[in-house]
Design a protein that fits this description.
The complex is a heterotrimer of chains A (about 500), B (about 325) and C (about 325). Chain A is of the alpha/beta class and about 500 residues long. Chain A has 18 helices and 22 strands. Chain A has a 6-stranded mixed beta sheet, with helices on both faces. A 6-stranded mixed beta sheet of chain A has the order 18-19-20-15-21-22, with helices on both faces. In chain A, helix 14 packs parallel to helix 15 (about 430-445). In chain B, strand 2 (about 155-160) and strand 3 (about 160) form a beta hairpin. Chain B has one domain (about 10-325): ABC transporter involved in vitamin B12 uptake, BtuC (Orthogonal Bundle), CATH 1.10.3470. With about 325 residues, chain C is an alpha/beta fold. Chain C folds into 2 domains: about 40-140 and about 285-310, Response regulator (Rossmann fold, 3-Layer(aba) Sandwich), CATH 3.40.50; about 145-285 and about 320-325, 3-Layer(aba) Sandwich (Rossmann fold). Chain C is about 45% helix and about 20% strand. Chain C starts with a helix and ends in a 15-residue tail after the last strand. The chains are: A alpha/beta (about 500), B mainly alpha (about 325), C alpha/beta (about 325).
Chain lengths: ~500, ~325, ~325
């Protein structure tokens, strides 16, 4: 579309390695003025590292960068007309909108700031973006959407060439999202190029001209979106042929271990499901679909109405202590916050949940005889790589921490196991090992529910996948019918129409 | 339009202004001697020391810090001034060295507060002890009389207005100007508002913070010179507990300890308010045994009034954002 | 000198047997021999340093030196917790007696209990600890008498004035026994005059507060005829106020406001010499210091002593103060 013009940014084989380990490689694209490039990929595909290289926070290890045709060693940011809007906002809450917009380049002298000019510039900038925000309001008094817009206004104030937007819509309401898109169109018309990071495929197709797809840190495709059908792009991101599985799963028993019937709360509505002993049920869905809330309600952390049965015995209303007694364990998404005693040793973390399973003689004699041996066996079982079981878990990698945590709960010999994002922030190798453990575990007859944003993970380990969207169960797939593209579209595609319906 | 920019400053000090007004009305009715020119003048003179220091403290608190060593700085400066004046007999020399010392001590506080990421409460508690100890060492805990003739800063008057009042007004105007009109003022509010954002915007955090503490030191020095001129000399218990009076004035004035915003004018009114309480008790010939109780109650009421308006504001905020939330999820 | 240590050993002998006995005996004998070789040591726990306290401490040190005692001085800087710790450390150092001017009675009582258990006699100086069960004796100024003397002279000056006479009393701190007693004595003396009205304001010993209080009092009551300062270090602040009101007339001049105070600092001395103040009661710090050390010596010897020992001060007026300069601890 801009053929003949000079690209405002072009990168060639951009790569980044941390202490010798390559996390992103071979990112190559050209960006012309007024173009929007979507950077897509699953969680952990290397989007943020790429973003950080493109906005100057990280220096690439390899590769070439050309800004307006001239090769530069690294991106510097605002001086080159490039700036980024990160997921965490960088505004000053107690300053006014006008002050926030102009703080990096105040008109007037140091001893006499020209507030008239500041306000004029701010007004002008907001008018330019076509938004109406009181420039004299404190940023903290604005809602999330307006703050996001102020952030974009601030970023585009000084960077008139390239604007990088990292998941800008996640915390926005539907009208706010529309406002944001109209601003992006406005900037596009004025020739500002944008790099747009989003996991909403319909947003990508609605806004972007071209894409760079990343998978496992490698660029797996680039091109114009009009040439690539959506299903093809999604397959590219997911990476495997549809339905292909890494595990040869055993057949679960017929016996239903856990079932819920019409469970509702303000975050989800009339959800029913059943898991058999030895079955692995995957729950897919986008962030905010209500997956975590659902399993938290099952475990009794959140209140919900509806029926919960364990071994055909009604246990609702659920409470954590009741569920624990019934042999249910819940391994949380945020292990640092919820489950891990980060300053304590591997040994203590492993045995914390079920000391009685580890310790043969709790009172007799001094010390917990058997604890060391049991933990050592467990660590070996779980393939925890740790210098010793007395090492603090803080020293372990995310994957190993997760293994310790899983091991801790699995050691209590539960009947039902709920895993929320079991491999979040875990590297590929450890991920595979955790998957193996989950499968092996189910084989012993434990009913497993896995909640994950990583679709591939669910495709790999689940017997069955249920799809949640905005608090509803919207689909169910048996393993033989697994279809990544269908699942993704079901989880995400109509999210906007959905919330629009809700909002209106 | 121009003043609109400072809308939120006006909101900050409105509560204390109303409280002060109410107290004045009450005292005017209760005591015939209260509402006289002479008494108003002496109230302002008495408030000057706290008010001037409160201006400096407001800067420090807006920048996200706190300095509990200012009473010790005041004492140290007064000791330096008294010793130097007695030794050399030169008023300008003693004055100049004292003010410069104040600047240095304040800067040291700022440097420590920013350099070691310990809470400034701890670092300034340490410097409090050091400054006070150094001053006691310097003077041997002796009282040093300062001749009344050179006490111009405390007792003089210019065009019929007592010098302490003039200094208080001058410091207030300068204080308001610095915070509202200069780049430093905006940067300081920014640093106090969010240090991470300030870092990301590469604002000169170090320079701004040190400057705020330095202003705190300078105002403490100036206040010290006024105080010893008025008291007639250096005494070793000077400035003890003053930091709490000053911080109380700042908080009464609507400045939040969390930093990022605040009101110079509010702090000055807060200082006047505190003086009015004691002045009123004196005017009413109150029993000496009720002083502390009344002081406490009046402070509590003032703080409650301030917090009530704050709670109302935050309730509205929560209501607004709750309505927005309802749009996204259901 | 040997007797108390021997007693200690005997006592322990009764209670401890076997190996412990041997160890304890060895330890104690080593302590006692080293203590024998050493001077007698007196712990001096000071609340905080200011002019009169420094003078008082110096008097104690001079008296101690005369007896060949060593003084270990610790200063709490007005912090009760610090003082608590300091007294404990004096106990651990096994001083022979402790002289204490308490920051806060309740806080130090625990530490003083330890001293008592270690059989170290405790003497409160300057500030009485009336509720303490640990203090063997108190030595300090006779504050009631001091306040009374300052009041008596003032009453004499005010005698014969017709109509209501307003007097401003600048109180010390309301939680300080000396401040309370000076006020008691002062009020008693002034009650001799039937037509007097006393306006009392607290100052917490703080000159800045005294300054403000005086200003305010004169705004409310412009006809105040006399001012009593619980400490004469506040007299310069009073002079500031009266100068600004053009009321700083000297003794003997028309419209002179009677000013008296208690203490004996240079501030009070200079003001009395100049005639701004009528006179001051000067505390006899030398005597207080000597008495403290003598009491300590007696207690160390195991003698019994009087519990409450006060030393009255001496009033000096504008007329006789210069010739008595040598007796005024603060004059320079």
């Amino acid at each position: 579309m801009h053929k003949g013009a000079r690209p405002v940014l072009s990168v060639n084989q951009l790569s980044k390695a941390f202490s010798g380990k390559t996390v992103v490689k071979d990112v190559t694209f050209e960006l012309y003025p007024g173009e929007i490039l979507a950077l897509v990929g699953e969680n952990g595909a290397g989007k943020s590292t790429t973003k950080n290289m493109l906005c100057g926070l990280l220096t690439p290890t390899l590769g070439q960068i050309f800004v307006e045709g001239e090769e530069v060693p690294e991106i510097q940011g605002v001086e080159q007309g490039i700036s980024a809007v990160h997921q965490e906002l960088s505004l000053f809450p107690s300053l006014t909108v006008a002050e926030n917009l102009c703080i990096n380049d105040l008109p007037g002298s140091a001893l006499n700031v020209d507030w008239h000019e500041t306000q004029r510039l701010a007004t002008e900038q907001l008018a330019f973006l076509g938004v109406e925000i009181d420039i004299l309001a404190n940023v903290e008094s604005l809602g999330a959407g307006k703050q996001q817009i102020v952030e974009i206004a601030k970023a585009s104030m000084h960077a008139n060439k390239i604007l990088i937007l990292d998941e800008p819509t996640t915390s926005l309401t539907v009208p706010e999202r529309e406002k944001l898109f109209s601003i992006m169109r406005m900037l596009k018309e004025r020739g500002v190029a944008m790099i747009f990071i989003s996991h909403f495929m319909d947003e990508v197709y609605a806004m972007a001209d071209k894409f760079v797809a990343l998978r496992d840190g490698t660029q797996v495709g680039t091109g114009y979106l009009k040439d690539v059908p959506r299903r093809e792009l999604e397959a590219l991101m997911v990476g495997r042929a549809i339905g292909e599985s890494a595990f040869d799963l055993h057949k679960p028993s017929e016996k239903i271990a856990l079932s819920i019937n019409n469970l509702s709360s303000h975050r989800f509505d009339k959800v029913s499901l059943a898991v058999a002993s030895g079955e692995i049920l995957g729950i897919a869905g986008l962030m905010g679909a209500g997956r975590t809330e659902l399993v938290e309600s099952i475990f009794g952390i959140r209140a919900a109405s509806g029926d919960i049965y364990i071994d055909n015995e009604q246990v609702s209303p659920a409470s954590v202590s009741k569920m624990k007694k019934k042999g249910v364990v819940y391994v949380t998404e945020d292990r640092r916050k919820n489950g891990m005693f980060s300053g304590r040793s591997v040994k203590e973390n492993s045995s914390a949940a079920g000391l009685s399973y580890f310790v043969k003689q709790l009172v007799k004699g001094l010390g917990f005889s058997g604890e060391r041996e049991a933990v050592a066996r467990l660590s070996q079982d779980m393939n925890v790589s740790t210098p010793s079981i007395d090492a603090s878990v803080r020293q372990l990698s995310g994957g190993n921490q997760q293994k310790v945590l899983l091991g801790r709960w699995l050691a209590t010999k539960p009947k039902i196991c709920i895993l929320d994002e079991p491999t979040k922030g875990v590297d590929i190798g450890a991920k595979f090992e955790i998957h193996k453990k989950i499968v092996a575990f189910a084989k012993q007859g434990v009913a497993v529910i896995v909640v994950s944003s990583d679709l591939q993970e669910l495709l790999d380990v689940s017997h069955r996948i249920m799809v949640m969207r905005t608090g509803h169960m919207v689909g169910e797939f048996e393993r033989e019918n697994f279809d990544a593209v269908k699942i993704i579209s079901l989880a995400a595609s109509s999210v906007h129409e959905q919330s629009q319906q809700v909002a209106s | 339009m121009k003043l609109n920019n400072y809308k939120f400053f006006e909101q900050n000090w409105s509560a204390i202004a109303v409280a002060t007004l109410v107290l004045c009305v009450f005292l005017t009715i209760a005591s015939p001697a209260f509402m006289s020119f002479a008494n108003m003048q002496s109230v302002l003179v008495q408030a000057s020391v706290t008010a001037i220091m409160a201006v400096g403290m407001t800067y420090i608190i807006i920048g996200g810090g706190i300095d509990i060593s200012i009473g010790a700085i005041l004492f140290f400066i007064s000791s330096v001034f008294a010793e130097l004046f007695v030794a050399t007999g030169s008023y300008p020399l003693a004055l100049g060295v004292s003010l410069i010392t104040g600047v240095l001590l304040g800067a040291v506080n700022g440097f420590l507060a920013i350099k070691f990421k310990v809470t400034p409460l701890i670092t300034t508690l340490a410097t409090y002890t050091i400054y006070r100890g150094m001053a006691i060492h310097l003077t041997g805990a002796q009282n040093i009389p300062v001749p009344r003739e050179i006490g111009y800063l405390g007792n003089g008057s210019f065009l019929g207005i007592p010098v302490p009042i003039l200094l208080m007004v001058l410091v207030t105007i300068l204080g308001v100007y610095l915070i509202q009109k200069t780049r430093f003022g905006l940067y300081l509010r920014a640093v106090g508002s969010s240090e991470e954002s300030a870092h990301e915007s590469s604002l000169p955090i170090m320079r701004v913070t040190v400057l705020a503490y330095l202003i705190g030191g300078l105002t403490a020095a100036l206040a010290g010179l006024i105080l010893i001129a008025r008291v007639g000399g250096l005494q070793s218990d000077i400035g003890i507990g003053l930091e709490f009076t000053v911080i109380a004035a700042v908080i009464l004035g609507g400045t939040k300890l969390s930093g990022g915003s605040g009101s110079i004018l509010g702090s000055v009114i807060g200082a006047i308010f505190l003086v009015l309480i004691d002045n009123g008790l004196n005017m009413l010939n109150a029993s000496p045994y009720v002083y502390d109780t009344v002081r406490g109650i009046v402070l509590l009421v003032a703080v409650i009034v301030d917090r009530l308006s704050e709670v109302r504001k935050s309730r509205e905020l929560i209501k607004n954002s709750a309505m927005k939330m309802r749009g996204t999820t259901s | 000198m040997l007797r108390p240590f021997k007693g200690k050993v005997m006592n322990i002998k009764k209670r401890i047997s076997g190996v412990l006995f041997v160890v304890a005996t060895l330890l104690l004998s080593s302590v006692s021999t080293s203590a024998l070789a050493k001077k007698i040591r007196i712990g001096l726990a000071v609340d905080q340093l200011f002019e009169s306290r420094v003078a008082e401490n110096n008097a104690i040190k001079v008296a101690a030196e005369k007896l060949g005692f060593e003084v270990i001085e610790v200063v709490a800087d007005g912090d009760a917790q610090t003082q608590n710790a300091q007294i404990q450390s004096l106990v651990v150092q096994r001083v022979d007696a402790i002289l204490v001017c308490a920051v806060d009675q309740n806080t130090i009582e625990r530490a003083l209990m330890r001293a008592k258990r270690a059989r170290i006699p405790v003497i409160a100086y300057d500030r009485a600890l009336p509720d303490s069960r640990t203090v063997a004796a108190f030595v300090g100024p006779d504050s009631i008498s001091d306040g009374f003397e300052a009041g008596k002279y003032m009453a004499e000056q005010l005698k014969g004035i017709e109509g209501k006479v307003q007097v401003l009393e600048l109180l010390g701190a309301l939680n300080d026994q000396n401040g309370i007693d000076r006020s008691k004595g002062f009020n008693k003396a002034l009650n001799a005059l039937p037509n007097v009205e006393i306006i009392s304001v607290p100052t917490d010993w703080d000159s800045a507060k005294a300054l403000a209080a005086t200003e305010n009092a004169f705004q409310a009551n412009p006809n105040i005829k006399a001012i009593f300062a619980a400490t004469d270090t506040q007299i310069p602040a009073i002079e500031t106020v009266l100068s600004n009101l053009n009321k700083a007339h000297k003794v003997g001049q028309d419209g002179h406001i009677v000013v008296t105070g208690v203490n004996g600092s240079n501030d009070g001395y200079a003001a009395t010499v100049s005639g701004f103040a009528d006179g001051i009661v000067v505390m006899d710090l030398t005597n207080i210091g000597e008495k403290s050390v003598q009491l300590a010596a007696a207690l160390i010897r195991g003698e019994s002593v009087g519990k409450h020992n006060v030393v009255p001060g001496q009033f000096y007026s504008h007329d006789n103060i210069v010739e008595n300069k040598a007796d005024i601890w603060g004059a320079n």
